[in-house]
Amino acid sequence: MGKNVMVTGAGRAYALGYNLVLRYLEAGDTVIATVRKKSDDLEKLKEQYGSRLIILTMDLLDTASVNAAAEELAGKTDHLDLLINNAVGVSPDCDKGFFEADLDLIARTVDIIAVGTMRVIKAFYGLLHNCPGTSLIMNISSEAGSISRCYRTAQIDYGMGKAALNMATMNIWNTIKDEKKVNIFAVHPGWIRTDGREDNPAPLSSYEAAGILKDLFEKRACDFEGHRFITNEGEDYPF
Ligand SMILES: NC(=O)c1ccc[n+]([C@@H]2O[C@H](COP(=O)([O-])OP(=O)(O)OC[C@H]3O[C@@H](n4cnc5c(N)ncnc54)[C@H](OP(=O)(O)O)[C@@H]3O)[C@@H](O)[C@H]2O)c1
Questions:
Q1: N or C: which end of the chain has fewer CB within 10 A?
Q2: Distance linking the first and last C-alpha atoms of the chain
């Protein structure tokens, strides 16, 4: 039987979230794709896949909108097998260094990436817990969120957001691990042409990356022993 898979931030056809949605739809699963505003790309996919694609609108910065989306979904399905927290947003100063960047823009990025993901996990946890077997939360993190491997002097808000997401992953893991009912990881998804530009030197298209991640998620779904921060190649990555 097909799984119920939810992907946040899935509205852009060239980016990772949409391609994860596509991969799971192609595999016969039911997919819940979340957006913060209407997406023509997803609407086209809906014409093709009908009731197997559920589109929810929510803003990760707004707890009430996340909770309302969870309530809406609970009226349509009784459980989730997999939640992929993919949505991301950065400040306009992301590429500036410490002395140039407006530091007051950082908190919003951390709010979207880390706190927003926690809002989603909390709101949808009941549906994950209702899964007949074990369910899985995959937080799309980044090597940029590793403190021990940090080499950057820019992307401060992004790195801080992903480091905070990694911390959230560990904190939630500590909270839920003993029950072995809902599993959770932070994953670096690889270097991907998520802007859809052909001159982007990243080796993976969003569609290729989504396929690799889908296989990885299947392999690690019931791994309650391993390190919690892994790469798309299944290797442990240092926090
Ligand atoms: N590209 C890489 O090489 C690479 C490397 C490491 C990690 N990653 C991670 O991979 C994931 C996907 O990357 P991407 O470039 O494909 O992402 P993206 O397209 O930049 O963002 C994904 C979606 O997040 C949504 N979003 C932004 N703010 C939101 C909010 N407040 N509430 C709800 N949704 C919101 C955006 O919605 P709108 O469409 O409405 O703006 C967007 O469609 C990200 O987590 C990224 O950090 C990518």
A1: N
A2: 36
| Minimum-distance ligand 1 atom for the alpha carbon of 192 | 3
Cα–ligand 1 centroid distance for 193 (angstroms):
12
Mean pLDDT of 164-184: 98
Find the 11 Cα to ligand 1 centroid distance in Å. Answer: 9
**Model confidence at 1, in pLDDT bands (50, 70, 90)?**
confident
| DSSP code at position 54 | E
Q: What's the CA gap between 172 and 156, in Å, rounded? A: 24
Handedness of CA 205, 206, 211, 215 (dihedral sign): positive
Write down all domains in the chain, each with its CATH number in brackets. Answer: 4-231 (3.40.50.720)
Distance CA 19, CA 8 (A): 12
Q: 22 CB under 6 A from ligand 1?
A: no
Residue type present at position 155: Q
Edge-to-edge strands of the sheet including 82-85? 53-57, 30-35, 4-7, 82-85, 135-140, 182-188, 229-231
For residue range 66-82, list pLDDT tens digits in order. 999 999 999 999 999 99
Percent of all residues in the chain with a pLDDT value above 70, rounded to a whole number: 100
Ligand 1 atom having least distance to the Cα of 113: 45
